[in-house]
Design a protein that fits this description.
The chain has one helix and five strands. The protein is α+β, with helices and mostly antiparallel strands and 68 residues long. The chain has one domain: SH3 type barrels (Roll). The chain has a five-stranded antiparallel β-sheet with strand order 3-2-1-4-5, with helices on one face. Strand 1 and strand 2 form a beta hairpin. It is globular.
Length: 68
């Protein structure tokens, strides 16, 4: 099973995004996504932002992870 992590984009530089996932900040590759901007929410897997998601999607993912 693969698990993705919902995170908010804090900054972007040279194809790398700084994301915040529940207070934990990390750098991930943003090269798969176009038009990514600070404030966007993304799904992160294996250090790569793989999809843009909505704020509601992120909240739902966080709630499911807490249940696990």
């Amino acid at each position: 099973m693969c698990v993705g992590l919902a995170a908010k984009v804090v900054g972007i530089r040279n194809g790398t995004a700084l994301v915040d996932a529940n207070g934990a900040k990390r750098e991930v590759s943003a090269q798969l996504l176009e038009d990514l901007e600070p404030g966007d929410y993304v799904m992160v897997h294996a250090g790569v932002a793989i999809a843009k998601i909505t704020d509601d999607d992120g909240d739902e993912t966080d709630a499911l992870m807490e249940m696990l």
